[in-house]
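Sample intake sheet
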Amino acid sequence: MAVLLSIASPGSGRDTVGFEAPLAMLKACHRRVEQQCATLQRLVPHLTHHGNDVAAAEAAQAVLRYFTQAAPRHHADEEDDLFPVLFEAVAGSEAVALRGLVDRLEADHRSLDAQWRALRPVLQDIAQGRSLNAPDLHLLSLAASIARFAADY
């Protein structure tokens, strides 16, 4: 069960970097997102085999904390701070290509936010120890979407 709970928290672990290396900081955040997705992916079979036990509740609480606190700040950091600086640094055809990438990233952020809104109540139920009839498929859907998103960047 300890594997189920191996969740990186913002600012913890060996990949901790600061604002002096903003791109490294964003990359480290993406790695933590991947770790959260791995926890979600382990949570589904855990619930199937063990039910909603203490380990499942603790894992759900940790994922809730991460996606409620760190993930929105990460998206805001990209959209409010990184993207404008990148646009100032490029011109011509590079700016056109960058616009396409940023538009895709912003659309991905909106899509992930919508999936999170659907998943959050399920995780809250798990975190509060409520019994489930079957693990909600949103767990796998969100984990797969976020993992693909994080792997792309």
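Comment: Confidence is low (pLDDT under 50) at residues 7-13. The radius of gyration is 17 Å.
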